[in-house]
Write a structure and sequence with these properties.
Layout: H1 3-7, H2 28-49, H3 51-63, H4 65-68, H5 73-110, H6 112-130, H7 153-168, H8 171-182, H9 188-200, H10 202-212, H11 215-229, H12 240-247, H13 263-274, H14 277-287, H15 290-296, H16 307-332, H17 335-353, H18 361-374, H19 378-387, H20 391-419, H21 428-446
Length: about 475
């Protein structure tokens, strides 16, 4: 008997089975609409998730103008980097972590659709409010905000990045789970790859948006795009696998603590997370703080890379990489081997980042695009997260895992800041290399803890 069946407490009904009736698969059109909604939702998710990174310098320069006045260029850069890590790598990713748990449990208890659209509403409203942050007159009608620590624009910014992160946490996991449960096992990898590849292009759209509008308008656009997605809710079907589990009152739906026991399930859970940490180390540190790292390698002055353009080129590579890794998984008939292949490519990309990239600005952007491609196995990772666990824990795992990985940017970013700070004294590039030397071996070893999930039958529940 397979490990999966030993751990299952019973099979769920076939995908698309209606409650209270015979098995009936949803139409091709209905499944196609789900894929489109999930892909567009992830597109807006990435647009909003990376928006702060794209407008970090312009927004913080405005909001911290008083603090930055009279400082040297190096001091200004350090202040902007410190505040950026706090708002993005820590506050926003903490929101992602908390939201990942809350939305994941809700998706297993209340349904995939309710979370898919509830999360979109949450982060859209947060981004609209983010466009209006401003210092409050303590003697004005909104003076009470000072009493709760929200009188300053920078504090409002921080709270809203947390709330936006909380909302952003639910979209990908719910979408991937819904698609995985509705699409046949043979085409599941292709469907989730399309969702991720289309979604990742949201970063490219975000970059070009910020080239033509100010940072406040960019937040408004992100919020409006999210609200527009809610109109597509009509016609989107719920997963038959979930409906059957709900109707049968399957025990343990959304019981996230079951991910930590027994030991085999814990190993599988931790391995699922750790294999993807390099992706957000690349995005959260090497790309978003290239304006600190590359000058320490000699690519400074008028050759200092643009953070926004770096994000754009990295995500162009990520989109292509997601397609390639997804197709590789289908061709190899193995998710594990696809991830292992892209781990090797990531090692090559990191070697180029710390050597060839510093030769010229053109070389840097070429390397950062390849680095995005090499770390572009997010689609495979998201699919694996959904396939590793039973229906009663699937949405919890598939929603929480990506957000724990995103939260890892707080750890890798914080470690980079500490190593490059006065206490340790490494240069920014040396600190980044040291973090890479920790992240990559752990990720490679974690691959061995995964259960091969290509073609897995998802009609089972965890004990």
């Amino acid at each position: 008997m397979s490990e999966k069946r030993r751990e299952s407490s019973g099979a769920a009904s076939p995908p698309g089975q209606e409650p209270g009736g015979p098995s009936r698969s949803p139409s091709t059109r209905a499944v196609g609409l789900v894929i489109v909604v999930a892909a567009l939702g992830y597109f807006v998710d990435i647009f909003d998730l990376l928006l702060f990174g794209l407008v970090r310098t312009s927004s913080l320069s405005e909001l911290l103008a008083t603090e930055l006045a009279g400082k040297s260029a190096e001091e200004r850069a350090a202040i902007l980097a410190t505040n950026g890590v706090w708002l993005d790598n820590i506050l926003q990713t903490t929101g992602l972590l908390v939201g990942g748990l809350v939305w994941g449990v809700l998706a297993d208890r209340r349904g995939r659709l309710s979370v898919l659209f509830g999360s979109i509403l949450c982060y859209s409203v947060a981004n609209l409010l983010n466009a209006a942050v401003a210092d409050v007159d303590p003697n004005g009608s909104a003076g009470f905000l000072h009493a709760i620590g929200l009188g300053s624009a920078i504090n409002q910014y921080g709270v809203l990045r947390f709330v936006a992160g909380f909302g952003l946490a639910g979209e990908l996991g719910a979408g991937i789970t819904l698609v995985s449960e509705l699409v046949s096992r043979e085409r599941r990898g292709l469907a989730t790859t399309c969702v991720a590849a289309v979604g990742i292009l949201g970063a490219v759209a975000g970059y070009f948006t910020t080239q033509f509008v100010g940072w406040r308008t960019a937040f408004v656009i992100g919020g409006v795009l999210g609200l527009a997605l809610l109109a597509l809710r009509v016609g989107v079907v719920e997963s038959g696998v979930f409906l059957n589990a709900e109707r049968a009152h399957v025990a343990g739906r959304g019981a996230f603590w079951k991910l930590f026991w027994p030991r085999k399930r814990l190993v599988r859970w931790m391995s699922t997370i750790l294999v993807a940490v390099p992706i957000w180390f690349v995005v959260g540190t090497l790309v978003k703080y290239c304006d600190r790292i590359m000058p320490s390698l000699g690519l400074g002055g008028d050759q200092t890379p643009s953070v926004g353009k770096s994000i754009m080129w990295c995500y162009v590579g990520l989109a292509v990489g997601d397609l390639a890794s997804g197709l590789a998984g289908q061709w190899l008939r193995s998710r594990k081997w696809s991830i292992a292949l892209f781990h090797v490519l990531t090692l090559v990309a990191l070697a180029l980042y710390f050597t060839v990239a510093a030769r010229s600005l053109d070389a840097y952007y070429a390397v950062i695009c390849f680095t995005g491609f090499a770390s572009g196995f997010w689609a495979v990772f998201a699919t694996v997260a959904a396939e590793q666990f039973g229906t009663n824990l699937r949405a919890t795992a598939a929603t929480l895992a990506p957000n724990v990985v995103r939260f890892s940017a707080a750890g890798t970013g914080g470690l980079w800041l500490w190593l490059s700070g006065p206490d340790i004294g490494l240069t920014p590039w040396q600190a980044a290399l040291a973090v890479a030397a920790v992240v990559m071996p752990i990720a490679i070893l974690a691959t061995f803890g995964l259960r091969e999930s290509y073609g897995t039958d998802l009609n089972f529940n965890e004990k």
